[in-house]
Amino acid sequence: MESEHFPLNTPFKPSPSFITWYNAVFMLIIVCIFVFLYSPIAVLTEIPPYANLTILLLFAIALVVFFTWVRFFYASMWYELHQDEMRWKRGVLFRGTGIVPYNRITNIDIRQGPVMRLLGISTLSIQTAGYSGKAQPEISIEAIVFADELRELIRTKVRSCSALGDGTGTGRPGTPSAGAPIDEQILAELKAIRQVLEKNA
């Protein structure tokens, strides 16, 4: 399966709406802190005017710093799909990179909050065998416009790799997944028998 939006061996980035999404969420958090926490305290304790100006200045500085960081963070992000694995990289001060074989992927979820829905973007959360049962996925591909297409492309790669072997050292090469068609299972068993006969010959 080939994809026009996610070609193999070609890095791709999240939608530029990633910046708007992060900024909007951060601003909502700042507004909630100001309205529900700072304002009641300011009214009850009668904070001096100069203190109010200082707090507002700190809020403004926090917004500028965060907005700048988001742009650098977005610039550092990329993902890349290969025939048997996917790769990713991100980070400003602390760089993170990773390689995940398709045959380790166990689950792919699409998440979309209210702000993301307005922007027309989604996040793919990818769980692997080593991360099963953990709260955080191993990879989150964020701010993707064609999320359904990307999920189906990765699922196709996962099924293809599963049909060739689990890659974990616990399964036999050529052993398909449990959901594979019966002809693929028979073919895999015949290949395994041939390998055993050739080894013992």
What does this structure look like?
- The protein is of the alpha+beta class.
- It has a domain at 17-75.
- It has five helices and six strands, in the order ααββββαββαα.
- It has helices at 17-45, 49-76, 114-119, 147-164, 182-200, and strands at 78-81, 85-90, 96-101, 105-111, 122-128, 139-144.
- Strands 1-2-3 form a three-stranded antiparallel β-sheet.
- Helix 1 (17-45) packs antiparallel against helix 2.
- The two termini are 38 Å apart.
- The model is unreliable at 166-174 (pLDDT under 50).
How much helicity do the residues have?
40-55%
The largest sheet, given as strand count, sense and whether it forms a barrel, is: 3 strands, antiparallel
Give the strand tally: 6
How far apart the termini lie comes to 38 Å
Strand content: 15-25%
Average pLDDT taken over every residue: 83
How are the strands of the biggest sheet laid out side by side?
A: 1-2-3
Oligomer: single chain
Q: Any idea what the shape is?
A: elongated
Rg computed from alpha carbons, rounded to a whole number of angstroms = 24 Å
Compressed to H and E, one letter per element, the order equals HHEEEEHEEHH
Number of helices: 5
How would you classify the helix and strand content by structural class?
A: alpha+beta
- Low-pLDDT segments, ≥5 res: 166-174
Topology overview:
Blueprint: H1 17-45, H2 49-76, E1 78-81, E2 85-90, E3 96-101, E4 105-111, H3 114-119, E5 122-128, E6 139-144, H4 147-164, H5 182-200
Antiparallel strand pairs: 1-2, 2-3, 4-5, 5-6
Helix pairs in contact: 1-2
